[in-house]
Design brief:
alpha/beta; TIM Barrel; eight-stranded parallel beta barrel; three-stranded antiparallel beta sheet; 12 strands; DUS-like_FMN-bd; FMN; tRNA processing; DUS-like FMN-binding domain-containing protein
Amino acid sequence: MDDPTIAEMRLPIEHVKTYEHELDYRDKFVLAPMVRTGSCELTRLLSLYYGADLVWSPEVVDKAVIGSERKVDPTTGVITYSKGQGPIFSTHPIEKPYLIFQIGSSDPELAVKAARTVQQDVAGIDLNCGCPKPFSTHSGMGAALLSTPDVLLNILRALLDEIPLPISCKIRLLPTQPDTLYLAARILRTGIRNLTVHCRTRDMRPGDKAMWERLGDIVKLGEQRGLPVICNGDGDGWPNRDRIREMTGASSIMLARAAERNPSVFASTGLVCNVTQNIPMLLRLAHYLDNPWGNTKFLLTQFKPTPPTNMTKQRRKEIQEIVSRSKTIAEVASQLEVELDGGEAFMEELRARLREREATA
């Protein structure tokens, strides 16, 4: 009897589609979907500024965004989808060509409705099949879909049928390699444009070492279908890019915690100092875009001391305390002696960098 993975790979692609605006997922550094960090557009914009090729939104549950109200800020251009008490998802038009909206869903019809809600403001749609957090798995979403592959596949098929944007999928490794390969083969057959694999199982924690050694066989399946497979897990950016590529065969790498600690991880020229450069930049951008203080404060607390810096440990502690006790962007900027003017200049510089990148692509 044939190996089920081999048998699956012999079958034709289910959905053969072309898109008006194709996405190239190959040979890329991309920003991972991250709860809280990615809930507003700041980290995505900073990541694009430093060289990220594509950026993922955090997982947004289908029912949360369905029925939300879309508003455009006439001053900043920020687009916000809101329902009830607060925003569900926000984005800036500058990131649209690079932005992948990740949906949390366990229902094909709801997934399609959610995708339709935001499709005018994003470049692609991604199905979350890897989040192990209870808010996602308790409703059969996220990593729970790994245990219900037929549901997973039917959601992808529905999105492929109904949404005029490239569709992708992000999974985790299953406990055994044969089961992982069979699931990957089934997913790749649907007609998606990209598969991202978090190289940990559902039960592994972020501190557990990512199992890069298991990704190579999945990458080979992708190559047979002509599709890229992105590696997620323990990527540090340029310092370990070549090692990941050599071990896995994946040409693209998704960065999460490293980008959260310092978004300049995407820069080929090396890290810049969070204290002297990224904190002032973030504050100016947050002020210009009127970003909520709660989100801005959280992002500041995730920044870690990064060379090059001659700042003492005591001064770094003082900065952390200033951020912790501040109540507004203006207050923390005053305490840190940061001039808040400059957000508009940042956006112009970002536009220039993106134009230059597109011209040389």
